[in-house]
Structures are given as structure tokens and as C-alpha cells.
Specification:
The chain is an all-beta fold. The protein has four domains: 109 residues, Immunoglobulin-like; 114 residues, no CATH class; 100 residues, no CATH class; 76 residues, no CATH class. It contains no helices and 35 strands. Strands 10, 13, 15, 16, 17 and 22 form a six-stranded mixed beta sheet that branches. Strands 4-1-9-8-7 form a five-stranded mixed beta sheet, with no helix packed on it. Strand 32 and strand 33 form a beta hairpin.
Length: 419
């Protein structure tokens, strides 16, 4: 025979903050309040309550803008009723509903467990001081509580913001986000777990847009009841070159370029509306040439050619585009290995070679070899064109293997040769 001795009540704090709690037995000891301190993620057995009574519970979170919560019924032996949430008010009058999860502790003869958690945690990694508002299908929009995160020195603190909808918003619950100089975003769902979204924020002047990545996941381990929503820059540029570099939207003036120092990571937030999300880079010496455009959404490896006034050969930069959660990381490195392609002219005739729709042309003499990278990496369908005299042919170099021969006319002898 096994004898199990357990506390009648077990409290679990699943908030991202340490908190103080109070318990009141309204039936047996209505004038005696039991207090305690519970660290985040911790459990606390309570031996001072009787499950034959009506027990109410409240919390307060020190060093935050939240006031002490209302009382919530967590056990009622007579009516078997338990509140599903308790409300916290902040200093601005905003309301946060903390969810309460009630269960029975297995193999204890009826001991109860009550976990309290935030339905959602919003994390802003954009450094744009995002603002949030709940948007209901049935009710007017309202600003979210607790969203001010600027300290006395004006620095924006990255911290988890607890968030909830009102009890009347069980249908089509959505939020909207904005920055100080943008309009509100479209309505966003917080319940689609394991989804990644790109959020577009239109500027007030309607000429630009700010792009933000949004990632929705369940909390880890015991925090799985909470959905964690992270807002981060949609595009981050990491400069691993040996010198500083300028970056701009390809369609924009060099005056709009931002400088990224060696080893620095920099978000690229602002884009001209109705223009492609394409970037162009340039080294910082006077009269250095801007690169051709490359697509910031084209995840994978892209090679970018840079021209310098002080040298005749081109510099090859490798851009590695990797999607990490909701952010596309664009890492710039100097290419130390061979160029991605090598064009061998093994024929007895000089040829002209170019990327289709590009202005750059190259003459490759007979029996000569030339390393090559695309002149216009942003073009989706990359085709190589070779030309001899007035005869040209398009080649898809992704078609590995032996292709049909290229036929051209040699005017001097008026016969055909195959190359």
C-alpha cells in the first residue's frame, strides 16, 4: 500500500515575471489572507487552504505598471465553479486578462493545481517601438495595455509584453501594429501557430512602406499554453567584408544609402512602395560603382560584381540569404573561391557573350577562358546569349549535358561550321 501526502493546492506561475499572490478562504477564514511570493516558472504547494471552501486568488507583479489584480474564484466546493481568468489593470487603465488553468494533481486523492499564464507574449525586436491595438470583429479597436517600453534615457527595451483580448472577443480575434510614422497594419491573427508572416506598414505620406517579419510559436515546455509572437526586421544585413559598405534600395538615389561598418548588423526597414524589394551595394571610395540589383527575397547564394575606380578587374561579393524565423539575413562576404561559372571558348572563333537583357558584353577570344558571374542577378530567368557575327543563340546553363551545336556562317568561305 502506498500513502501519498500532498498539499491540497498547487500554484504554478507561468508568467514571464516573478509575482506576489494572495489567497482568501471565504468560507472558513473569511478575514485571513494568505500571501506568498512565486518566481516565474516556479510551483508553490499551499497547505493553508481547505478544498471544502470557496477560495479566491489575486496577484500583483512588482516593478511593472500593473496594479493588483481583482479577486478570482479558483475553487468552489458547492457550485464547482472556477474563474477562467483574472484581470490586471495598468496605470493607464488598460486591462490584461491572465488565463487560469485548473486541473487535478494525479494520484493525490483530489489535490488541485492552478496555473496562471498570459495568453500571448509579444516581443518587439525591430527597435521601432511598435504599438499594438486589439481589433475585434464586433467591437471598436482599442489600444493594448502595457506597451510603453522606452526608458528614461530614451532607449527602447526589448522585453516580452503580456497581451490578451477581452472576454467578448472569442470570434475573429485580431491585432494591428504600427510605428510612430506609419499607419496601422492589416489585421493579424495571433492564433496561427508555426506561421511566418510579412507585415507591411504604410508610411503616413503613402510613399514608403516598412516591412516587418512576424513569427508565431507556442511557448517552450511548461509555457506551451502561451503563444509567443515575435516581431523582427524582415531584412537584416550583416557586413563581413574587410571594409564598410553602402546599401540602398536598387531603384533609389545613392543619397538614400545607409552605411554599414565592418562586422555590423543593420536592419533594412524602409522600402519605396510599388518598387521591387531589390538592393544594390557599393564600396565607400569616391566614384566606386554601384552594383546591379539583387532580390532581397531570393533566399540562397547570390554573387554580386563590384567595380572600383582604382582597379580594372571587378570585385566579387557573395551574398548568403538565409531565412531565420521571420527574418531574411543577408550576409556579405568577399568571395575567396572560384567564380560561380567559367566560360571556355574551345572553338577557333572569337565569340561575344552576354546575359540576356543585360547591357554588358564580353569578347572571349578563341581558345581562351573567362570566369563569370551574372551581371543582373535580380533577373529571374537567367539566360546566356552567345554571338558570332550576326548569329546569336540563347543558352540555359542550368541544362546540364551536351546541347545541340551552335551553327553560324563564315562569310569568307560561305559554308557552315559547328561550334
Amino acid at each position: 500500500m502506498n500513502l501519498v501526502i500532498a498539499a491540497p493546492l498547487l500554484l504554478e506561475n507561468l508568467l514571464p515575471y516573478d509575482c506576489q499572490y494572495k489567497l482568501l478562504d471565504r468560507t472558513i477564514k473569511p478575514n485571513q489572507v494568505y500571501s506568498g511570493y512565486l518566481r516565474k516558472g516556479a510551483k508553490q504547494p499551499v497547505h493553508t487552504v481547505d478544498l471544502r471552501s470557496t477560495i479566491v486568488f489575486s496577484i500583483s507583479i512588482p516593478d511593472t505598471k500593473y496594479n493588483k489584480s481583482e479577486w478570482a474564484i479558483i475553487h468552489d466546493a458547492q457550485e464547482e465553479y472556477r474563474d477562467p481568468r483574472l484581470a490586471l489593470l495598468d496605470s493607464d487603465g488598460g486591462k490584461l486578462n491572465i488565463s487560469l488553468s485548473h486541473s487535478e494533481v494525479p494520484d493525490t486523492g483530489g489535490a488541485r493545481k492552478m496555473s496562471f499564464y498570459a495568453p500571448y507574449l509579444l516581443i518587439d525586436k525591430t527597435a521601432l517601438n511598435l504599438k499594438y491595438q486589439a481589433k475585434s470583429f464586433l467591437f471598436h479597436s482599442k489600444t493594448t495595455s502595457g506597451q510603453n517600453k522606452v526608458d528614461k534615457d530614451g532607449k527602447i527595451e526589448v522585453e516580452a509584453l503580456m497581451f490578451s483580448f477581452s472576454t467578448n472577443e472569442s470570434i475573429r480575434r485580431r491585432i494591428q501594429i504600427r510605428t510612430d510614422d506609419t499607419e496601422w497594419s492589416r489585421s493579424l491573427s495571433l492564433d496561427a501557430v508555426r506561421t511566418i508572416n510579412e507585415v507591411q506598414l504604410d508610411s503616413v505620406n503613402e510613399e514608403e512602406e516598412t516591412l516587418i517579419g512576424m513569427n508565431v510559436v507556442e511557448g517552450p515546455l511548461q509555457y506551451r499554453l502561451t503563444k509567443v509572437i515575435t516581431f523582427a526586421p524582415r531584412f537584416m544585413i550583416r557586413n563581413q567584408l574587410s571594409e564598410a559598405i553602402l546599401v540602398k534600395q536598387a531603384s533609389e538615389s545613392p543619397k538614400t544609402a545607409m552605411l554599414i561598418q565592418i562586422g555590423q548588423n543593420m536592419p533594412f526597414h524602409r522600402w519605396k512602395k510599388e518598387h521591387p524589394t531589390q538592393l544594390s551595394i557599393c564600396l565607400t571610395q569616391p566614384k566606386d560603382d554601384w552594383s546591379s540589383a539583387f532580390d532581397a527575397r531570393d533566399v540562397g547564394q547570390v554573387h554580386i560584381k563590384l567595380g572600383r575606380l582604382i582597379q580594372t578587374s571587378e570585385t566579387l561579393v557573395r551574398a548568403d540569404l538565409v531565412l531565420e524565423e521571420a527574418t531574411v539575413w543577408i550576409t556579405l562576404n568577399m568571395e575567396q573561391n572560384a567564380w560561380p561559372y567559367r566560360i571556355d571558348n574551345a572553338s577557333d572563333t572569337d565569340i561575344i557573350m552576354m546575359q540576356k537583357h543585360s547591357k554588358s558584353k564580353y569578347k572571349i577570344r578563341r581558345k581562351q577562358t573567362m570566369p563569370y558571374s551574372w551581371d543582373e542577378p535580380a533577373i529571374k530567368d537567367k539566360i546566356l546569349t552567345i554571338q558570332v557575327g550576326t548569329i546569336s543563340r540563347d543558352i540555359n546553363i542550368q541544362e546540364i549535358g551536351t546541347l545541340p551545336p551552335f551553327k553560324y556562317t563564315v562569310l569568307q568561305s560561305c559554308h557552315y561550321q559547328r561550334h
